Amino acid sequence: MPYLKKLVFLTILISFYMSGNTQTLPPNVPSNGLIAWYPFNGNANDESTFNNDGNLFGGVSLTTDRFGNQNSAYDFDGVDDFIEIPAPNELVFGNSDNFSINLWFKPVEFDPNTKEHLFKKYGCPYGAGQDIITLDFYDTIRVKLRQDGISTGNITGSQVSPCYDWQMITMVKDAIADSLHYYLNGQLFNSISIPNSSNSSSVPYYFGMSRWCTNPPNNLVPIFHYEGKIDDTGVWDRKLTSSEIQNLFDISFSNISFFGLDSNNLCLGDILTGYSADTNNVFSKTWVVNTPDTSFTQNNDTFQIQIQSGGYYEFKLYRNSTICPDSVTYSFTLDSFPDISIVPPVSNSCGDSLYVIGADSGFTYLWNTSSTDSFTLVNDTGLYTVQVTSPANC
Q: Residue span of the signal peptide, if any (predicted)?
C-alpha cells in the first residue's frame, strides 16, 4: 500500500562552541574566578564582569577562529600590530596569589631565530615590585614568570604539536606550593618550583608583542612582535584544575560528535549528509562505511548516502597521518518498514470493515473515508485507500 513519504535532509553538526558577539561563556570555560575573558568576537572587549577592554594598535585585524567563524579572532602582522590592556587592577598578582592564563594561537610559522611574544605583562621602571608574565615561543613554546625584577620561573622546551595548526597554551601559578605549571594543548608539560617574591604593580598587558624598558630614560620600546592569530584568552584568579584545562582544549579529533543524526527519523529514500567537525586538523581524512546500501559518496570532510534499506549503518572517519592517527565512529540500526496490507471484508455487504495489518505500534492512519483508525467501515461501493505513517513520518 502507498505510504506517506517525508524527505529528510540530516546534517551532522559540530559540537564545539560557536563564537558570537555575546557575553555568554562557552560551556567549557569556567566562570569561577574568571577575571578577564577575550573571545575577540568582533572586538577586543573583556567580556568578564571587569570590562578591561583592549586597545588596538598597528593594523591588527579580525579574522577567522579555529572553527572557521568570521571576525572571531585577531590577526597580527609581526611588524607593528598589538593589543594593549591598560594597567588592569584585577590582573595584579602578588606572592600569595594563585592565577591561571589560557590562550589560543595559530602562528604563521615557528622560526627558531625569531622570538615572538603572545601575551606579555611589562612596565617601566623595570625592577622590584613588578611581575612580568610571558607566554611566547622562540625555538620552543614557553611560559615565564618574573617577580621582584628577578626570574622566578621559566619553563621552556615544549615543541609545537604537529597534529594541530591552532595551539592552546596554559600557565598556572600555585602560590601555596610555590610552583609554576605549563600546559600545551590541554596536557601538562612541566612544573617547576618558584621562590617567594613581593607584591606586584599594575602595568599594561600586551597581545602580540613585548616591551623593552630602556635605562635611561625608562622608555617602553616595542619588541618581539608576533605574526599569526590569537583567540579566546582567559585569566582566572585561581588555579585551574587539570580537567578544566583539558576541557578548554576543544578540538580533539576523538571528541568529534555526530549530532542531528536520529535514526528514528530516517525513512527509506532519505538522503543522509554528514560533515566532519575536524576542521582544525591539517591532515586529510577518509570515511569508511559499512551499510546495506552502496549509493555512497564522500570527500575529505563530508559523506552522503541514500537510505535504501533497513539494517546496520556504520560511519568511521580516519585521520590520514602516521604521526597523529585517530578515528571516530558513529553507528545505528535502521528497522525496515513493515510489510503492510489490508484485509478485505468478509462479505461484500455494507457495514463490513477493512483492516490494516502489519503496522507496528505508533503508526497512524488516514483513510479516504476520514477514519484515523486502523480500520474503516465499508458503507458504499468504490475505491478505499489509506495512508499509513510510521513514527518517523515515513
A: 1-20
